[in-house]
Design goal:
By secondary structure, the chain is mainly β. The protein has two helices and 13 strands, in the order ββββαβββββββββα. The protein has one domain: Jelly Rolls, CATH 2.60.120.10.
Length: 184
């Protein structure tokens, strides 16, 4: 199967089968039946796409229930370091992060379930990121925590003097200040 389990329960890497020849390549970036065979039955309702330059860090974000989102993240151009943090109370991996390089070249995708915060840093000159969501964006349920949280110690692979972060993301609280609504 094209799914790889990570050390964080329910967080999966999806590696589609890529068919290459002299013309280029073809792959199914999403096929409902393949996901269902793995027990993943998600109804996607929204696709989001962003373009960012080198050094941009977006995150760490999530939406509160009942607007929580599962995301399937992939890169159309360039490369990113994609990061997910388990924020489910009672999880044996609560507060642990997982990071993976997603790129247009490797075509890997990260399935980020509800109960995880998500963010990424741009490693290439430019990156275009596309992610599917199973719930609509709801501004009032937006939450997050600081990407430089010392308890997480995430290496974003960007020198501090080259990071580009929104003002909103610079003032988010620490994870330990979060009363997570998610339960494992």
């Amino acid at each position: 199967m094209p799914f790889i389990k990570t050390e964080l329960p329910d967080l999966l890497v999806f590696e589609p089968v890529v068919h290459s020849d002299a013309r280029g390549y073809f792959f199914e970036s999403y096929n409902q039946s393949i996901f269902q065979q793995e027990g993943i039955d998600i109804h996607w309702v929204q696709d989001n796409q962003s373009s960012s330059q080198y050094g941009v860090i977006r995150g760490l974000h999530f939406q509160m229930p009942p607007y929580a989102q599962t995301k399937l993240v992939r890169v159309l151009r360039g490369s990113i370091l994609d990061v997910a943090i388990d924020i489910r109370k009672g999880s044996p991996t609560f507060g642990r992060s997982f990071a993976i390089e997603l790129s247009a070249e490797n075509k890997k995708q990260l399935l980020v379930p509800k109960g995880f915060a998500h963010g990424f840093s741009v490693l290439s000159e430019q990156a275009e990121v596309l992610y599917k969501c199973d719930a609509f964006y709801n501004k009032s349920s937006e939450q997050g925590f600081l990407f430089t949280d010392p308890d997480l110690a995430i290496n974003w692979m960007i020198p501090a003097d080259r990071t580009i972060v929104s003002e909103k993301d610079k003032v988010l609280p620490l994870l330990k200040e979060l009363d997570s609504p998610f339960v494992f």
